[in-house]
Design goal:
By secondary structure, the protein is α+β, with helices and mostly antiparallel strands. The chain has four helices and two strands; from the N terminus they run αββααα. A hairpin with a 5-residue loop joins β1 and β2 (about 25-30).
């Protein structure tokens, strides 16, 4: 009989094959929802879906893309933001 904490679906069930050939049931924490764009809300590419502990131990370059607004805006929204900024500057000059 599983323990009470294993009965709920807060932990996901992973089946692993043991060296003896028996299939064992492991309980793992679920992955969080992916990071989303601040403007349009789509999931961001290049940003891993990991628990905070694992994200803390990752190098900075693996956590977000190396571009302006990386990890905050998707590439499409970033491009439109830069276009709008360039248009504002050209009108004021």
């Amino acid at each position: 009989m599983p323990r009470g904490m294993h009965k709920s679906r807060t932990l996901r069930r992973v089946y692993r094959k043991a060296p003896g050939g028996a299939v064992k049931l492991h309980y793992r924490t679920r992955k969080p929802k992916g990071a989303s764009c601040g403007s349009c809300g789509t999931t961001l590419k290049g940003v891993p879906r990991e628990r905070p502990k694992k994200m803390m131990n990752m190098p900075k370059t693996a956590k977000r893309p190396e571009r302006p607004f990386g990890g905050v805006l998707c590439s499409k929204c970033m491009r439109s933001h830069f276009k709008s900024e360039a248009r504002k500057v050209s009108v004021n000059v």
